[in-house]
């Protein structure tokens, strides 16, 4: 096997790279290295040895790695993300071990999350374009829904526009220069209020004691993954409250794997021992990705463009429905149309009741029976 070694980085180049990464993180168009060299050389020349040693250590770590193109920040982030993933798997497994019986499991609520990103993969830039989340349990189905499209027309890095437009056209059709809600503080606090289940305000954030539940999303699919979702929420937090320490932004969210969630549900109910689950079509990914799209399940933005299958809201409804349908095959959950899965309307579209306090019967919904 041939390993292509990356060019050796000096402490000074590492210093420039870190500065450039900060420009990207703060939504600015990154400077060229020639520009940074002219701008930052005077600063480097007056830095103390202790300050320079920090960048020498980073350069050494980079040079000792086998990465050919990964920037310093990506190396450190990959290591942290790997640790986060292992900790997540351990936490979810222990959480299910502490559920005493199936009745408790049926009543336990989980939150599913999907985020479409304003994204430039080459520069590792991720900012939420659309956030959708639902709270549900196996017994009663869906209880609460959150959905928000977010604009960045005033802050997106101008040098990224072309690649970001290409990404959005392919995956969600929410362009970075279109006008969408951009009151980031209100959006962020409303999202936290949803996932915490109680009103969260500025004071709660300042206390530094906010404990949020796990949010479960797809581990990896074309266009998104767990880490991109987490990075985009961190960037939203930092953009809404730039005075907050960047490391705190990274510590607030706990993102879990929906694949791990379904696997632990099946193990708790001993469904993984059923020989039918050994069939290829019964893999975790196939269960979650089973086709359940349909007109009416997406948000208005995507419905009007007839691309509801690209909508984050449709995705989380799909995942919940497929989990409930699959578990029902072996346990008899007493599935309720409109709560555990979408109900079919007379015009061929589908409907899900997005709040447990909304009416459910055909008469209450004023649906025609003809």
TrEMBL record:
Q: Which domain of life is it from?
A: Eukaryota
Location of the Maelstrom domain: 123-341
* Keyword terms, alphabetized: Cytoplasm, Developmental protein, Differentiation, DNA-binding, Meiosis, Nucleus, RNA-mediated gene silencing
Does the keyword Cytoplasm feature in the UniProt annotation?
Answer: yes
CC terms in the record's Gene Ontology section? nucleus; P granule
Give GO terms: molecular function aspect only: sequence-specific DNA binding
Tell where it localizes.
Answer: Cytoplasm; Nucleus
Gene3D superfamilies annotated for this entry?
Answer: High mobility group box domain
Q: Which family does it belong to?
A: Belongs to the maelstrom family.
Protein name per its UniProtKB record: Protein maelstrom
């Amino acid at each position: 096997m041939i390993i292509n070694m990356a060019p050796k980085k000096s402490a000074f180049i590492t210093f420039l790279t870190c500065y450039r990464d900060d420009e990207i993180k703060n939504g600015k168009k990154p400077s060229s290295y020639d520009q940074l060299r002219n701008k930052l050389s005077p600063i480097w020349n007056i830095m103390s040895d202790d300050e320079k040693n920090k960048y020498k250590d980073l350069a050494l770590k980079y040079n000792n790695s086998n990465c050919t193109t990964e920037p310093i920040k990506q190396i450190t982030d990959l290591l942290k993300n790997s640790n986060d993933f292992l900790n997540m798997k351990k936490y979810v497994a222990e959480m299910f071990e502490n559920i005493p019986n199936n009745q408790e499991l049926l009543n336990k609520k989980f939150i599913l999350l999907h985020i479409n990103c304003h994204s430039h993969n080459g520069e590792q830039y991720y900012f939420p374009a659309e956030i959708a989340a639902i709270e549900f349990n196996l017994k009663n189905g869906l209880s609460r829904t959150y959905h928000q499209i977010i604009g960045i027309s005033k802050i997106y890095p101008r040098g990224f526009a072309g690649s970001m437009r290409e990404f959005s056209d392919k995956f969600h059709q929410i362009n970075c220069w279109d006008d969408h809600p951009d009151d980031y503080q209100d959006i962020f606090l409303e999202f936290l209020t949803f996932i915490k289940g109680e009103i969260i305000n500025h004071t709660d954030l300042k206390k530094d004691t906010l404990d949020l539940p796990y949010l479960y999303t797809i581990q990896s699919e074309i266009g998104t993954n767990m880490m991109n979702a987490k990075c985009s929420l961190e960037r939203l937090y930092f953009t809404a409250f730039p005075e907050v320490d960047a490391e705190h932004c990274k510590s607030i969210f706990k993102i879990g794997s929906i694949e791990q969630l379904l696997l632990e549900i099946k193990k708790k109910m001993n469904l993984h021992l059923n020989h039918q689950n050994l069939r290829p079509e019964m893999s975790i990914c196939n269960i979650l990705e089973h086709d359940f799209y349909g007109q009416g399940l997406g948000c208005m933005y995507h419905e009007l463009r007839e691309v509801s299958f690209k909508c984050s809201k449709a995705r989380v409804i799909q995942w919940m429905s497929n989990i409930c349908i699959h578990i029902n095959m072996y346990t008899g959950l007493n599935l309720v149309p409109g709560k555990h899965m979408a109900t079919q309307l007379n015009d061929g579209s589908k409907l899900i009741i997005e709040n447990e306090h909304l009416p459910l019967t055909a008469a209450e919904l004023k649906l025609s029976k003809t």
